[in-house]
Design goal:
The strands form three sheets. Strands 1-2 form a two-stranded antiparallel ribbon. It starts with a strand and ends in an 11-residue tail after the last helix. It is α+β, with helices and mostly antiparallel strands and 223 residues long. The chain is built from eight helices and six strands, in the order E-E-E-E-E-E-H-H-H-H-H-H-H-H. It binds zinc ion. Zinc ion (ZN) binds next to loops.
Length: 223
């Protein structure tokens, strides 16, 4: 069985139909403390996003669904707003996640959680592609949108502990140690209230220790 499969996409911005490959299955050997997956063999992240070859509209598979049609995005892309920004960007996996975020942000009612997911994946890919200079900007965007998603109740109860931990970890990596420690405390409260994965307690201890030592270094996820 091949690792990828062909899918057909219909761009609701310009009407183009095109085929793309999507990963069928993939393996990871572990995760970083910011949940960055460490892929085995090929890295599936760039293939989870699709760019229309005609107009440049970029989104994950869900974003191409007919239910996602949005006139503001269509007008912005077709009037050249996207190409004005994307022409300045390097042709990399992380830039494509930024393009997807820019398209999503133009929606009449954008989802903070979706924006956080796009920027988080951009920060992961920039680490995997060894582009450390752009990582902090993406982490900053991801942290802000995740905080917003938590605030407006976009995150399901069972995910609140992990997402609060993740914002704390992004803040720690950005060198904002006091904010990180406060968020790790909040994550422990969310964990007590709503539960979460087993690794959380060890991860919270390890990352809080690093924040107290004022270390912004990368670390593997404690398990
Ligand atoms: Zn298109």
């Amino acid at each position: 069985m091949s690792a990828t499969r062909e899918i057909e996409l219909h761009c609701w911005v310009c009407g183009e139909r095109f085929e793309r490959e999507e990963p069928r299955a993939y393996a990871v050997t572990g995760r970083g403390s910011d949940l960055c997956p460490k892929p085995v063999g090929f890295n599936p992240l760039p293939m989870l996003l699709h760019t229309c070859p005609t107009c440049g509209f970029t989104a994950d598979g869900r974003g191409f669904h007919p239910s996602q049609v949005d006139e503001q995005v269509r007008d912005w892309v077709l009037s050249g707003g996207l190409t004005r920004v994307s022409d300045e960007m390097p042709d990399t996996g992380y830039s494509r996640y930024e393009m997807a975020a820019l398209c999503h942000a133009r929606r009449a009612a954008p989802s903070a959680l979706q924006l956080a997911e796009y920027y988080l994946a951009a920060s992961w890919l920039a680490q995997l592609d060894e582009a450390p200079e752009v990582v902090p900007d993406y982490q900053q965007e991801a942290a802000q949108y995740l905080e917003q998603a938590l605030l407006v109740g976009e995150v399901e109860d069972k995910e609140r502990a992990v997402m609060t931990y993740l914002v704390g970890e992004l803040r720690r990596r950005l060198g904002e140690f006091e904010a990180a420690l406060k968020l790790f405390d909040e994550a422990a409260i969310e964990f007590a209230e709503h539960g979460g994965p087993k690794w959380m307690v060890r991860a919270l201890n390890q990352q809080a220790r690093m924040a107290k030592e004022r270390s912004a270094e990368d670390a593997p996820l404690a398990r």
